[in-house]
């Protein structure tokens, strides 16, 4: 009887929360100075730029065209690499470590610049017998790594709040 009451209470609370329009607040921690900024990249249609733009918009950051009075987030360098972590007995690659490094810079209108970077590592088991499936899996992993790197960059932008206020 107690177990059924707990289930009923849980279901009722989930229904009430979902029915009232409750949602987590995004972007509440981003400094006011960085709520509106310009995103610059050498390739505006690269996968990393698109993922970063999406993550910024999810955090309620307004992206505008370049202006003198708006801070700029510039993607400087994106490095994708893989290294062999282990091999099979016959000398073929068995496991790889995928590495994504992103270097960016936040430039304020007063010409103060703050470098930020993100590094993401993942392991990937590479089976040459299922090459097509592993290729698709590898692309999904790279996409997840880009999203994680974008979230890390946004977290580091939040950490700049104290430095921005002192300059």
TrEMBL record:
Signal peptide limits: 1-19
Compartments it resides in: Cell outer membrane
Mode of membrane association: Lipid-anchor
InterPro entries, alphabetized: LPS_assembly_LptE (IPR007485)
Superkingdom assignment: Bacteria
Keywords: Cell outer membrane, Lipoprotein, Membrane, Palmitate, Signal
Xref: PROSITE patterns: PROKAR_LIPOPROTEIN (PS51257)
PANTHER family referenced in this protein's UniProt entry, alphabetically: LPS-ASSEMBLY LIPOPROTEIN LPTE
Subunit structure: Component of the lipopolysaccharide transport and assembly complex. Interacts with LptD.
Family: Belongs to the LptE lipoprotein family.
Function: Together with LptD, is involved in the assembly of lipopolysaccharide (LPS) at the surface of the outer membrane. Required for the proper assembly of LptD. Binds LPS and may serve as the LPS recognition site at the outer membrane.
Protein name (Swiss-Prot/TrEMBL): LPS-assembly lipoprotein LptE
The species this protein was found in: Pasteurella canis
